[in-house]
Specification:
The chain is of the alpha+beta class. The chain is built from three helices and four strands; from the N terminus they run H-E-H-E-H-E-E. A four-stranded mixed sheet has the order 1-2-4-3, sandwiched between helices. Strand 1, helix 2 and strand 2 form a beta-alpha-beta unit.
């Protein structure tokens, strides 16, 4: 997979994520190891997920998204809108989402 997503790929992932609910919440403690572990665990069962950055979090959603992408291997930020982050990581064994060329 490419190092970063193209705008067409991000648009495709945004459309797939539209109906998803956030599965991980980042609160007042910020991006601590348990939160990163929860995100990794969520990627065990899905390739696309939403993370909600709560109002009491120390960083805003864009900063948090960048920190997640830096901390976790092969995780891409598909979208940051408001306090919601859409993350994508291709399943290494059986990818279900086909990204446009």
């Amino acid at each position: 997979m490419t190092e970063s997503l193209t705008s067409k790929q991000r648009a495709h992932l945004r459309s797939l994520a539209h109906g998803l609910k956030p599965v991980v919440h980042v609160g007042h403690e910020g991006l601590e190891p348990p939160v990163l572990g929860s995100i990794l665990e969520a990627f065990n069962t899905r390739e696309l997920l939403k993370v909600k950055v709560l109002e009491n979090a120390p960083e805003d959603a864009r900063e948090t998204a960048g920190a997640i992408a830096d901390a976790l291997p092969d995780v891409h930020v598909a979208q940051t809108i408001g306090r919601t982050i859409v993350l994508y990581r291709e399943d290494p064994d059986a990818p279900e989402i086909r990204l446009p060329g």
